[in-house]
């Protein structure tokens, strides 16, 4: 029998399960390693799920006409005119991204760091991955000069980069690339004949949309951009697994859509009927959905900014968050002091945080970052408490000042301060 080598499980999911086990055993942990939007379920979503329960038959692979039209309307309202025939829905954006990897030939270009799923998916599809460093100001998009050089170096070495994955706003840095950068990257993609996949699942979680301009690559290069999105982050229904993809309007876009649908027919057959009912309602964006999106974006922004402030006060460098619910601190300024405590890379930094302070983070090495860097991703969306406390946080004028959140933030600040303190034993909380 031929031995089969398996890749390890997704690190964020593995850490989430570790936290669940340790909490069940009585450990008190601050969980910053899993990007789940913990929010109370909107009653209207539960109603739609119940209505859709009778939709028990298989449906079209790409999705029923109603849900595809609703998603098309969602994009059209965001300045991207879209026909329903250019939409595919699936059980979360993750399988849609995998189907794209299977459908597009050539190798993959990724920002460095990037969400921890992109690179493994490319590997499963038999592709090489070329990481490109991000600028100092923002993530989710590679530095244009470094991207150009990476493409040339990859081709000289026999690689065939064809697919560029971008994230707006970014996971893991919580930042948003400015319009000028989007235009520059799109021009480079045209010159180098790259297909862009723009992961915009956090688009509706821009913290201050009036002050923060959002430009999608699909606005600039519609003929070569696929946009993916979903409902897990904006509405807190990650376990329901609802995603969607928008394809280019031209003939090539139609052929790519057909290829993704063919892959989907072998991978998941169709988005579950009850979830299509939910998606049709949610993507149509009735007033209660829009109100929840505004409230959650405000909440995510307030707590992410508080964690950013704590990291900076502890001595880290950190890009200010603008969207989503992440911060990505860099403890390089404290390297000398951390080395005295055995912390020399992102893995040992994450290990020290959990061992000494019960703070669980996702080390940058798990996100394609340089292993020796002292960086990690902190997901701030799990700090809102139980369902009743989450509702209070959504309604609060200053969510970070609520006692249950403020207490956790104080513990986080103490944990960061303990990093460089000799003999700092973990205190009970």
Proportion of residues in helical segments = 40-55%
Major sheet: arrangement of strands: 2-8-7-6-5-3-4
Shape descriptor: globular
Number of domains: 2
**Strand content range:** 5-15%
Q: Helix count?
A: 16
Rg computed from alpha carbons, rounded to a whole number of angstroms: 21 Å
Number of extended strands: 12
The name CATH uses for the topology of the largest domain is: Aspartate Aminotransferase, domain 2
Summarize the structure.
The chain is α/β, with parallel strands linked by helices.
Key words describing this protein structure:
429 residues, Aspartate Aminotransferase, domain 1, Aspartate Aminotransferase, domain 2, globular
Description:
- The structure is a single chain.
- The protein has about 425 residues and is α/β, with parallel strands linked by helices.
- Helix content is about 45%, strand content about 10%.
- It has 16 helices and twelve strands.
- A seven-stranded mixed beta sheet has the order 2-8-7-6-5-3-4, sandwiched between helices. The protein has a three-stranded antiparallel beta sheet with strand order 9-12-11.
- The protein starts with 10 loop residues before the first helix and ends in an 11-residue tail after the last helix.
């Amino acid at each position: 029998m031929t031995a089969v080598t398996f890749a390890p499980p997704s690190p964020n999911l593995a850490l989430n399960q570790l936290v669940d086990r340790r909490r069940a055993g009585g450990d008190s942990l601050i969980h910053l390693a899993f990007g789940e939007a913990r929010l109370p379920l909107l009653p209207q979503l539960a109603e739609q799920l119940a209505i859709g329960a009778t939709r028990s038959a298989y449906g079209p692979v790409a999705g029923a006409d109603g849900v595809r039209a609703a998603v098309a309307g969602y994009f059209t309202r965001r300045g991207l005119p879209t026909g329903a025939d250019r939409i595919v829905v699936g059980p979360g954006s993750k399988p849609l991204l995998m189907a794209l990897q299977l459908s597009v030939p050539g190798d993959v270009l990724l920002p460095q760091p990037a969400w921890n799923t992109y690179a493994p998916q490319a590997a499963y599809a038999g592709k090489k991955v070329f990481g490109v460093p991000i600028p100092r100001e923002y993530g989710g998009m590679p530095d244009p000069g470094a991207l150009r050089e990476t493409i040339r170096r990859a081709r000289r070495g026999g690689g065939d980069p064809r697919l560029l994955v971008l994230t707006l706003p970014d996971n893991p840095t919580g930042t948003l690339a400015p319009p000028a950068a989007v235009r520059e990257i799109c021009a480079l993609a045209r010159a180098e004949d790259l297909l862009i996949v723009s992961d915009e699942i956090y688009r509706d979680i821009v913290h201050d949309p009036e002050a923060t301009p959002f430009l999608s690559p699909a606005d600039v290069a519609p003929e070569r951009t696929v946009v993916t999105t979903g409902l897990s982050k904006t509405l807190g229904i990650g376990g329901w697994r609802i995603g969607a993809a928008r394809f280019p309007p031209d003939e090539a876009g139609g052929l790519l859509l057909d290829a993704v649908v063919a892959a989907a027919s072998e991978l998941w057959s169709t988005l579950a009927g009850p979830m299509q009912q939910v998606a049709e309602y949610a993507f149509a964006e009735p007033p209660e959905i829009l109100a929840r999106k505004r409230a959650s974006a405000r909440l995510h922004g307030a707590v992410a900014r508080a964690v950013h402030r704590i990291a900076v006060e502890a001595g880290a460098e950190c890009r200010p968050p603008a969207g989503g619910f992440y911060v990505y601190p860099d403890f390089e300024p404290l390297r000398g002091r951390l080395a005295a405590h055995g912390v020399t890379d992102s893995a040992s930094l994450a290990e020290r945080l959990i061992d000494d302070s019960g703070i669980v983070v996702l080390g940058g090495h798990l996100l394609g970052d340089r292993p020796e860097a002292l960086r990690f991703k902190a997901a701030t969306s799990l700090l809102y408490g139980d369902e009743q406390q989450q509702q209070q946080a959504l309604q609060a004028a200053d969510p970070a000042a609520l006692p249950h959140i403020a207490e956790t933030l104080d513990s986080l600040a103490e944990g960061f301060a303990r990093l460089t303190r000799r003999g700092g034993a973990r205190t009970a909380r």
